[in-house]
Design a protein that fits this description.
The protein is mainly alpha-helical. It is about 60% helix and about 10% strand. It is built from 4 helices and 2 strands, in the order H-H-H-E-E-H. Strand 1 and strand 2 form a beta hairpin. The longest helix is centred in the last third of the chain and has 24 residues. The termini are far apart.
Length: about 110
């Protein structure tokens, strides 16, 4: 019998896809109607998962970039930049990762 050989899967660069999804998320949130947009709509439009969408909505709310209009309805606060806030959230998460990594490696 021939040995079973499984080649490693090819490396795929998902960064452009994720960047596009996050941009679509920001556009959908910034262009939401006066009644707001739901997390489900944001997931459908962006292709991002529920945990990412809910965590990001919470973080954007904490930064004062969005407001919750009612149960499950969100809108961007006038004058706020969702993309800029997403970059700030990522920078904070990256810093937290570096600190945790340094603690683990110590």
């Amino acid at each position: 019998a021939l040995p079973i050989y499984s080649a490693p899967p090819p490396r795929v660069n998902l960064a452009p896809v994720i960047t596009r999804q996050k941009d679509t998320f920001a556009t959908a949130l910034e262009s939401a109607p006066a009644t707001g947009i739901s997390p489900t709509q944001l997931m459908e439009e962006s292709g991002l998962g529920s945990s990412w969408v809910y965590q990001t909505l919470r973080a954007l709310g904490e930064l004062g970039v969005i407001t919750q209009l009612g149960r499950g309805r969100y809108a961007t606060v006038a004058g706020q930049d969702v993309r800029e806030a997403l970059s700030a959230i990522k920078a904070g998460n990256d810093q937290l990762y570096r600190e945790a990594r340094a603690t683990v490696d110590a």
